[in-house]
Specification:
Length: 227
């Protein structure tokens, strides 16, 4: 009994420290990788408590090493966009301009029944209401409804909705152009540079994140001074 109490207490405090190191992204299961590593983390902790044949120190070392590997993968994904796509995957547009992208459904192994169910969960009871639908890396669907089906805001009360809104997209990430999105949107880096200068930004290195919004204006988030 004393051994079980010691193992449980040691594992409890080890998990308390290690989960703080893993951070909120890991614990929120934002991607399938986060989900799997989180489940495995809990399974390893349970084995340490239950399996008396497993030395306590060895179990804690295993748990710590698993945490460090998870942090290493997260760091690699943070610094290199190609690695991030490989690890976490990327969003997939399944409805674009009100039309279902059949090839995207096939790639994501999503059938029409699944799609309509996920749309209903997003309060879209007809595919005809949807302008864009994106299957996110964590498996949930993000939906942008057509203007006539969107809830009115204070800004919209006296304004006519745009006929063909564009899907907001990141065009600068961590001080670098997202060329894939620029090409899809049909805009050049020179155009972005002009928009940045009009906003008082003289170099892309000053920008941590920039997004082209539905009205074709730029949302710009500058780097923190400490960076």
């Amino acid at each position: 009994m004393l051994e079980i109490l010691i193992r449980t207490t040691a594992t409890f405090f080890a998990m308390l420290v290690l989960t703080r190191l893993l951070g909120k992204k890991q614990l929120s299961h934002l991607t399938f990788f986060n989900y799997v590593t989180g489940i495995t983390f809990g399974s390893v902790a349970a084995e340490i408590v239950i399996q008396k044949e497993l030395f306590l120190v060895n179990g804690l070392v295993s748990l710590t090493w698993w945490t460090l590997l998870t942090l290493l993968v997260g760091y690699v994904g943070l610094k290199w966009s190609k690695a991030r796509i490989l690890i976490d995957g990327e969003p997939t547009i399944v409805i674009k301009n009100g039309e279902i992208i059949e090839a995207a459904l096939s790639r994501t192994r999503l059938n029409l029944d699944d799609l309509t169910m996920m749309l209903r969960e997003r309060d879209a009871f007809s595919i005809g209401e949807v302008e864009y639908a994106i299957l996110e890396p964590h498996g949930k669907l993000s939906v942008l409804k057509k203007p006539e089906y969107q809830n009115a805001t204070k800004k919209d009360v006296k304004a006519s909705p745009p006929l063909h809104p564009i899907l907001p997209a990141e065009i600068i990430s961590d001080g670098k152009y997202v060329m894939k999105n620029l090409q899809e949107l049909g805009i050049s880096t020179k155009w972005v540079d002009r928009q940045l200068k009009q906003s008082g930004v003289h170099s892309i290195d000053e920008v941590f994140y920039a997004e082209l919004q539905s009205d074709r204006s730029l949302f710009i988030d500058r780097r923190d001074p400490a960076d």
